Amino acid sequence: MRIRYLLSALTVLFFLSSNVQAQKKKRHYAYINTKGEVVIDTDYKWADDFHNGRAQFKKVVVTGNKAHYNYGFIDKTGKEVIPAIYEKVYEFKTDVTWVKKRGEDKFILIDLNGNRVGNTSWDAVGFWFEGMCQVKVAWDDPNRYSGTSYKQGFVNKKGELVIDPKDGYFGSGFYNEGLVCLTQEGKGYGFLDKEGKVVIPLMYKQAGSSTFYGGLARVKSNGKTGLINKKNEWVVKPKYGTVSGFGDSLLTVAFGSSYNNFGYVNFNNEIVIKGQFDGAESFKGGFARVDKDGKYGIINKKGEFIIPMEHYSIYNDIEESGFFRALNDRKFTYYDRTGKQISEIEAKSKAGYKHGVFPIRDADGNVQYYNDEGKLISNAKFCNGFDHSEEGLALVQLCDGVNYAKGQLIQPGNSESNEPNIKEEKAVERGNKSSWKTHTNSSFKTSFIVPGKVKEAQSKSKKGLPKTQMQSLTDDALVKVTVDQLSGKIKSSKKAATLTNSANKVASSMGGKVIEQPETFTLNGETAVKQIFVKDDIYFLYVVSSKSDLFYQWIFAAKKADFGQHTDFLKSIKML
C-alpha cells in the first residue's frame, strides 16, 4: 500500500495515487479480538491502537461553516468517552495524556475520563517515560538563527513541575533508569534525578545527550568517549572519539578519523573485532548488524558472519522477536539465530507475540491472523491489520463487501510490557537504488542523493537572508534539505549544543519517538549531529550541520520497510 502522511512541522506530503485514495475512503477501521472476530466496528476515517484502555479516533466536526478534523478517544466498548473536541492529542501511554483544543495555543493534561489534571499548560510537550514528561515554553532567543526557540523542563503525572524551564536546562527529552541527561549554557552535560536534583555534575563535554542503560551511560571527556556508572565512576575509560553505542559488554567504536571504519572493543578497551565496517550497530542478544559498500549482514561476538553481508538491508530483531529479517527485491526473508532461512509464519510463531496471535500479509496484500502454532485463527481476511495490543484488540481495516464474524472482547492476561509493537507493513515497491542520483546545489554548497526529481524553492528567512528548500519525493521515500544563510558563523563553543538542540526540537515538534539520541560525527571536517526518530510508522533520519555562514538540515523519511536506504543517504551528504 502506498503511503500518505502530512508532516506539518516539515511541510512534507507523501501522496497517494487517486485510485488508492478512492478505495481507502470506502473502507473503515475496526477492532478484532484474538479470535479474529470484530469487536468494535467504526465509521472513522482514521483510528489508532489501544493504550491503557483508550484509542484515538478522528472525525469531521463542523463549526459554523467550517469543517475540521478533530480527535477524541473511545474505550474498549467503542464508546466515545472523550469527545472529538481536540485539534491534537497524544496517546495514553500512561493514565494521563496531553491534548490541545482548536484555536488554543497550549497543551493541557487530562486523565482517562477527560478530566483536567493540574493547572499548568505548555507551548510544546514530549512523551512520557518513567512517569516524567518534557514540557516547553516558547521564548524569543536573540541568538536563534530561525524558527521557535524553547526553554525546557519536566513535569510528573500530577502535572507538577519538577524541573523548571526557567532554569535553562536542555538535552535529552526523556528519563531512563531514573535519570535524565541535561546541560546548561556554558556548562557540560550531567544527570538529574526525578526530584530535579543534579546527581552527576554538569561536567562532560559531549555534544548531545546520553542515557543510562544497564546502569551505564556514554559520556565524553577531553574529546574521548567512555562509560560511567551512576556513581560517576569510569567503568570504561575514555579512549575513542566516536562510540556509537554499547551492548552485550562491547562498545561500537569508529577506528577511523571520521564516522567510519567501525569495529568493537570490550570494556577494557581491548579490540575484539577490528575496524572494518562502514557502519555497525550495538550488539543485541549476542548479534549485531554491520554494513560495508551498501550491503548488510549479521555477525556474532566473535566477528563471524551468521548472515552474510550481501543484503540490501537487514534487521536484528533477535532480542525482541527471536528472528532476523533481510530485505531484498522488495521482499523480506526470515532467518533463525543460526542463520538458517525460515518462513515468516515459522519465525513469528516462535516470537512470543502478544496473546500468541500475529498478522501475516499474503501475496494479494490482504492480512490474516495466525496463532503461535502457525495456524489460522479464522478465515477472515482484512485489507490492513496490525498487532494486538495489551487489551487484546488489533486495529484492522475492513474490506468492502465482506461480512465479518462478530464477537466479544476476550480479556487478556497481565503483560509485563506496556510498550506497543511497531506495526508491520507490507514492503512497498521501492525504486532501484542504482536509479538514485546525486543532486548538487552549488549556490548553497551541498550535494546528496535523491530518489526522484528535485523541486527547489528559493525564499528568505525571517531576517531577510537567503534560504533554499530542496525536496525529492517518491511513493516510498522522501529527501528534504533546507539551507539557511546566517548573519554570521555559529560560535565554535556553541556549535555542538546548537546542533543538538535543533535535532531535539525537530523530533519533539513532530511528536516523534526517538530511536537514536542525537549523536555527533564529523562531516567534511565540520561538526554534525544525526538523530533517528519515528512518528506514526514513518522513520526519520535528521542530520544538521553548519559551515561558514550556512546552516544545513538534511532529512530522509520512509516507512520502516524502506528505511534501510537512510545509510546510503547519510554517506552521500557533502558540504562543498
Topology (SSEs and partners):
Blueprint: E1 6-7, E2 12-13, H1 18-26, E3 28-32, E4 38-41, E5 46-51, E6 54-63, E7 66-74, E8 80-89, E9 96-101, E10 107-111, E11 116-122, E12 124-129, E13 132-139, E14 149-156, E15 161-163, E16 169-171, E17 180-184, E18 189-192, E19 198-204, E20 217-221, E21 224-228, E22 234-240, E23 243-247, E24 250-254, E25 262-266, E26 271-277, E27 279-280, E28 287-292, E29 295-300, E30 305-311, E31 313-317, E32 323-328, E33 331-335, E34 341-342, H2 344-349, E35 357-361, E36 367-371, E37 384-388, E38 394-398, E39 437-441, E40 446-450, E41 454-460, E42 466-473, E43 478-485, H3 492-510, E44 513-523, E45 526-535, E46 538-547, E47 550-559, H4 566-572, E48 574-575
Antiparallel strand pairs: 1-2, 3-4, 3-38, 5-6, 6-7, 7-8, 8-9, 9-10, 10-11, 12-13, 13-14, 14-15, 16-17, 17-18, 18-19, 20-21, 21-22, 23-24, 24-25, 25-26, 27-28, 28-29, 29-30, 31-32, 32-33, 33-34, 35-36, 37-38, 39-40, 40-48, 41-42, 42-43, 43-47, 44-45, 45-46, 46-47
